[in-house]
Design a protein that fits this description.
This protein is mainly alpha-helical. The chain is built from three helices and two strands; from the N terminus they run ββααα. Strands 1-2 form a two-stranded antiparallel ribbon. The longest helix is centred in the first third of the chain and has 31 residues.
Length: 117
């Protein structure tokens, strides 16, 4: 995943700073971890069986694949961790964000960590 080319108003390329590259690398690493979380939850759901869990697992797989492909294309997609909060009333997460939240809720429920935060 490479950084997208930055240009000014005259279409002259603006070089990326070291901070840009570092931020990009950190985001890519975080996205890969999050996609892994989604896929791991889908595998557990399938192993547990049942029509409902199979449908949810299929949704998680589709969203993980879309997130992976979007990041491969231009590196511009991310699941903003600040959006994983109850303080943002009216916030409507993307499908990929929903998949991550479902995966995390499922994993926490299975591990017995069913806190309210």
């Amino acid at each position: 995943m490479a950084l997208l080319k930055q240009t000014d108003w005259n279409d002259h390329e603006i070089p990326h700073t070291a901070a840009d590259v570092t931020r990009h690398e950190q985001r890519v690493a975080r996205d890969r971890v999050e996609v892994g979380e989604i896929r791991a939850a889908a595998r557990v759901m399938r192993a547990e069986g049942g029509a409902f869990l199979e449908e949810v697992a299929a949704f998680l797989d589709r969203e993980a694949l879309q997130l992976d492909r979007a990041n491969e294309a231009d590196g511009s997609v991310e699941l903003d961790p600040r959006n994983d909060t109850r303080e943002q009333s009216g916030y409507a997460p993307t499908g990929a964000r929903r998949a991550l939240l479902i995966a995390r809720a499922f994993t926490r429920t299975r591990s017995g960590d069913v806190g309210h935060g």
